[in-house]
Each structure stands twice: as structure tokens, then as C-alpha cells.
Prior knowledge:
By secondary structure, this protein is mostly helical. The chain has helices spanning about 5-30, 40-50, 60-65. The two termini are about 30 Å apart.
Amino acid sequence: MAITASPEISGVVKVSRSVERYWLGMLRSRSWAGRRLTWDAFNQIKERTPLLKPKLRREMQALAVL
């Protein structure tokens, strides 16, 4: 069985990446020292306090029926 990326899943991943970029921007804006926050340091923070994994609750076809 092949697993393929559906448009719904790729949309969820895009939203997740946007949230990560926003989170990094907010951490950078908190102090002068935060302006030097790199993606490597951000990934270490993310390992200690991870975001929830994005989940698709309903298929798009099921939403169209509603």
C-alpha cells in the first residue's frame, strides 16, 4: 500500500510550518538576546517543548457533505 500526500495533509503541514515560523518570530521579539536566536537553537527549544502534531480530523469530502 503506497502512502501518498493528499492536498489536505499538505495544507496541514503548511499551517504547521507557518506556526513554527510565527513562534520563532515571537521568541526573537521577546528580548535583545532573542534577536540572535537561530533555527538550531529554536529546534533545541522545540525538542524540549514540542508543538502538538497536526491532525486532520475529517476528510475534505466529508466536510463537503456538511
